[in-house]
Structure formats: structure tokens, C-alpha cells
Amino acid sequence: TRFLMRMRLTPDCSKMLISTSSGYLLILHDLDLTKSLEVGSYPILRARRTTSSSGVSPRNSLEVLTPEVPGERDRGNCITSLQLHPKGWATLLRCSSNTDDQEWTCVYEFQEGAPVRLVSPRCSLRLTHYIEEANVGRGYIKELCFSPDGRMISSPHGYGIRLLGFDKQCSELVDCLPKEASPLRVIRSLYSHKDVVLTTKFSPTHCQIASGCLSGRVSLYQPKF
């Protein structure tokens, strides 16, 4: 895939998501790794899921999307970071404009099933939450992540990180899905670096989070109970 940036599998391995620096998100549906994954073999499903005459979607169906990004409707963007919700409910993207003057963190809910009217395009992803990021460290990729339970997002923000939630109570995504895209809530901001933070990660087993900056320093945080 040209301009490949990131690739992720959903927890049940039913989908493969591929992001590109040209702003496209590719989704392989009903993934079957025993079949050819050559580009020429993809059944192309541009911006909608379709079904065959038997009512069953073909394996390895490719959907090509240009995810909606706030403030970038009239300009291209680069999808630099891609993560999946630990329960497979959503995908998390970090996007930057082609001119590198804006950065966004966006959450997209997976919408399953075929469209009600097959003549109407139906996108498999719907933008539910977003937040604009600090436009610091232009040209560098910032890696963000979900918490192990999927209730929080940790995102690099300038010389630190921000812990983000779908609401102030850190509710589950499925319990606070908005009808229209809404801003992510800042739960806490943590700044301990002297250089631009490029990556952050929750521990899968402990109440701990790490962040790493451009100069090579790694910081570890844990809550005070």
C-alpha cells in the first residue's frame, strides 16, 4: 500500500485497518488471511458496505475512506497514528493537515451492517469525538493510546500528555455516544518534559502510564490514591 503509515487488527481479527499519509483509511472487512491480499484481488467497496446477491459480504472486502476531520473539510490531511478500542468498538486517529498547521485527535465508532438503502452510500465509521491538539513538533509522529478498559485516551500534547475522556465521568464509549460529534473532555494534563512528547502508553496490568519525548527521556506516572 502506497504511503502506508500504520496497520492494526481489531481484537477479533475480523478487520484490518490501514492508514496512509495521504489521508485515506483502508478497511479490510471479514478478514481471511488464507486468501490472497494482493491489491488486484480486493473487492472495492468505496465508502459503503455492499452485499452479494446471496446477502453475504465477500471476504477481504476493501473499504476506502477519507475520515471526517474537524476543520479539515476543504484540505487534505495525514493520518499519522492509528489505534483501536480494546473492545473493538471504535478507532482512534491522530491527524495533521497537509500544511502541518493543525493536529486533531478523533474517535470513530464502527457502524456494522449493510445500509438501509443499498443505493445510499454508508460509511463504516462515524466521527463521535474529537479535540484539537497543540501544533508543536511539526513533522514528528505523535503516538496516542486507549487505556486498557477503553474509558480514557492518552495523547501527547506539547511538552506533556493529556488524559481525555468521552465525558467527565470517564464513562464507557457506548454509554455516552452523541448524536453529533462532540469534543473530548480533558480529565488531566501532565507536563514533566523539556522537549516535545512523541509517544505515550498505558500499562496493560498496572495503574501506570508512560510518556517519551524527542530528547529520549521517559517519564512514568501513577495516580495518588
From TrEMBL:
Pathway assigned to this chain's UniProt record: Protein modification; protein ubiquitination
GO cellular component, one term: Cul4-RING E3 ubiquitin ligase complex
Pfam families listed in its UniProt record: WD40
Presence of the UniProt keyword Cell inner membrane in the record: no
UniProt feature coiled coil, ranges: none
Keyword vocabulary terms for this entry: Repeat, Ubl conjugation pathway, WD repeat
Function statement: May function as a substrate receptor for CUL4-DDB1 E3 ubiquitin-protein ligase complex.
PANTHER family the UniProt entry points to: DDB1- AND CUL4-ASSOCIATED FACTOR 10 (PTHR14588)
Family: Belongs to the WD repeat DCAF10 family.
Protein name: DDB1- and CUL4-associated factor 10
